Automatic annotation (TrEMBL):
The record marks C250 as: May be important for catalysis. One of its GO terms (molecular function) is alpha-L-fucosidase activity. InterPro entries: FUC_metazoa-typ, GH, Glyco_hydro_29, Glyco_hydro_29_N. The lineage of its organism: Bacteria, Bacillati, Actinomycetota, Actinomycetes, Pseudonocardiales. Gene3D superfamilies: Glycosidases. This is alpha-L-fucosidase. It comes from Amycolatopsis keratiniphila.
Length: 433
């Protein structure tokens, strides 16, 4: 197994979905959804000319948002390749753009000090040897299916493995690989495809041989280095057969992975920050997607969201990077992350005056608002105390109460940094009110 140390330390990466579908600008599954023939889809190939492609600006946007790795689609389900593959004509070098896109992307990430990731689709709607199934754009076209009835998955396997070899030998060190996806047993997709179809054991062996340090996901249908919940937040640390696993949630800005012009269903920066925090509090990463447009630009809406996340990360990186879950139980609407003796309380809603933290009485030697390093004082309440008039009720034994400012700090998710005492409880208690 490769070392996942950098991955679980860094916590936050950028996903980039970019390809011919970016021109259609209505979801990366457009060919499937609209059942487009190769000829109909070809119009995007013939007009692919991203004159504003500047991977340095992508890498800088990722870095400014606090991300440390970027994962780009080398080929999506439509089969279009962003590099000069020897194994197909359906590639960027044959479009009006005429140049490789992957090399400059890899260089830009490296120059900005970011780790490099590739997404590669196992599914391929363009390759003639890929047997038609329920995901395929031509699934209702009897004539097409008849003409492809001898499609041989073994031949497609050679193509898949051959392209992965190209990707992992031509661009230097690749840190991360996201295969997408297996769907064996899915009735609506005609029984689907899985490890036998891709020869997943052989594929993973090839990947490990060519790039021994790489991290690979689990979507070949056999275990990899991490698992990939998509478009939902797990309700706790993730496990497989009762064993904790490394995981990374992949999330969109607006529900679509590819550029989707008329889709305004944007998550707020605050929600996205909460998702990042929530994931780290459950020992997970966040891979947040952008879908650059047909000219190769990250659009202004996405830029704004990233910039806002970046402003928060700039001030609160300490509560994310190198952090994981805590054994303490966070209060309602709060999330804890922890790194050694630093416990970070993220408040998703701002309470009035006080917050009560179970189990922390006598365990905190200092507390401050991370935003401006202003002290947050501890309040002593007697557990037996009855609430009346101006006297608040006592809290259960062992609870630490903090006194908060009335005004929520001007940041989407305020964080209180708690310096845990390594001494025995009680000795360090310092009631200040
Ligand atoms: C899905 C979709 C796809 C997207 C991916 C990202 O499997 O098929 O369009 O690329 O998830 O995780």
């Amino acid at each position: 197994m490769s070392s996942t140390a950098w991955f679980t330390h860094d916590r936050f990466g950028m996903f980039v979905h970019w390809g011919l579908y970016s021109l259609a600008a209505r979801h990366e599954w457009v060919q499937n959804r609209e059942k487009l023939t190769d000829e109909q889809y070809r119009v995007y190939f013939d007009h692919f000319e991203p004159d504003k492609y500047d991977p340095r600006s992508w890498a800088r946007a990722a870095k400014a948002a606090g991300m440390t790795y970027v994962v780009l689609t080398t080929k999506h389900h439509d089969g279009f390749c962003l590099w000069d593959s020897d194994l197909t004509d359906f590639k960027v070098t044959n479009t009006p753009y005429g140049k490789d896109l992957l090399g400059p992307f890899v260089d830009a990430c490296r120059e900005e000090g970011l780790k490099v990731g590739f997404y590669h689709s196992l599914i391929d709607w363009h390759h003639p040897a890929f047997p038609v199934d329920g995901t395929h754009p031509r699934r209702d076209d009897a004539e097409y299916i008849a003409a492809h009835q001898y499609a041989d998955i073994a031949e497609y396997q050679l193509y898949l493995h051959g392209q992965v070899r190209e990707l992992l030998t031509r661009f230097g060190t690749i840190d991360y690989l996201f295969f997408d996806f297996s769907y064996k047993g899915r009735k609506e997709w005609w029984g689907g495809k899985g490890p036998d179809d891709w020869d997943s054991p052989g594929l993973l062996a090839l990947v490990r041989e060519l790039q021994p340090g790489i991290l690979v996901n689990d979507r070949t249908g056999i275990p990899g280095d991490f698992i990939t919940p998509e478009q939902y937040q797990p309700s706790g640390p993730m496990t497989r057969d009762g064993v904790p696993v490394v995981w990374e949630a992949c999330q969109t800005l607006n529900g679509s992975w590819g550029y989707d012009r008329d889709n305004l269903d944007y998550k707020s920066p605050e929600l996205l920050i909460r998702m990042l925090v929530d994931g780290v509090s459950k020992d997970g990463n966040l891979l947040l997607n952008v879908g650059p447009n047909g000219r190769g630009e990250i659009d202004p809406r996405a830029h704004e969201v990233l910039a806002e996340i970046g402003r928060w990360m700039d001030r609160h990186e300490r509560s994310i990077r190198g952090c994981g879950p805590s054994e303490f139980t966070a209060p309602a609407d709060g999330r804890y992350t922890q790194r050694g003796d630093r416990l970070y309380l993220h408040l998703f809603s701002w309470p009035m005056n006080h917050v009560h933290l179970p189990g922390l009485a006598g365990r905190v030697r200092y507390a401050q608002l991370l935003d401006d390093a202003s002290e947050i004082r501890q309040v002593h309440t007697d557990p037996g105390q009855t609430a009346q008039n101006t006297q608040m009720g006592g809290q259960p034994e062992g609870t630490l109460t903090l006194k908060l400012p009335i005004r929520k700090p001007d940041t989407p998710v305020p964080v209180i940094e708690l310096f845990l005492s390594t001494e025995s409880p009680a000795a360090e208690t310092r009631p200040t009110d």
